[in-house]
Amino acid sequence: MPFRIGRIGRVVLNVRDVVRSVQFYTEILGFEVSDIYPDDMVPGGMAFLRCNTDHHGIALVGAEGAANTDLGNTDLNHIAFEVATLDEVIRARDHLQRHGVPIDFDGRRRAGCQLAVEFRDPDNHRLEIYWGIDQIGSDGHARPRAEWKGVRGLEAAIADPVRGQDTALQDPSLMPR
Q1: CA distances from 11 to 78, 97, 116, 159 (A)
Q2: Which of 91, 155, 157, 163 pairs as cysteine with 108 (C-beta 3.0–4.6 A)?
Q3: Residue 140, SS3?
């Protein structure tokens, strides 16, 4: 394989009520909120929760946003798999394309600022392979929203990194000229 999945990085769930679910995950399970997308960013809202230094280990998408996913999967929004290097994200994308797997998204997401490739399995479950998710420091604060740089395309994301994100490739030949 041209890449190696290091761990399951996070699970994103579709929920009926984001506020109620955030309350459960924080008060009952001890997760902390990293960021919230309001209704104008994602219909129904979205919450990013953490239990370690990763920006989020669970994300919750409100019912209205979940209804717009066209997945046919009512509870699972997507599962994300972490790889060790940015090079592996590029190699994973290229590997998927060589095997005829349609790519839904590649580039950088907003909250968490990870670089990723998103695609679907044969049962239409959304999957993500990513690198470089923001880490939450000892102060407990996430990257300010003003520093998010959501962008389509891995090449564009690499060319314009967020503060503190080293997008230098170990193998520069992976970038098209």
Answers
A1: 6, 24, 15, 28
A2: 157
A3: coil
The pTM of this model reads 0.83
Q: Which residues contact 59 (CB under 8 A, 6 or more apart)?
A: 10, 11, 12, 13, 46, 47, 48, 49, 77
Residue carrying structure tokens 């999957």: 127
CA distance 170 to 131: 14
Tell me which residue has tokens 């599962």. 79
Beta sheet of 151-152, edge-to-edge order: 32-37, 46-50, 58-61, 5-14, 76-83, 126-131, 115-120, 103-108, 151-152
Rounded Cα–Cα distance for residues 64 and 95 (Å): 33
10-48 pLDDT per residue, tens = 999 999 889 999 998 999 888 999 999 999 999 899 999
pLDDT value of position 66: 57
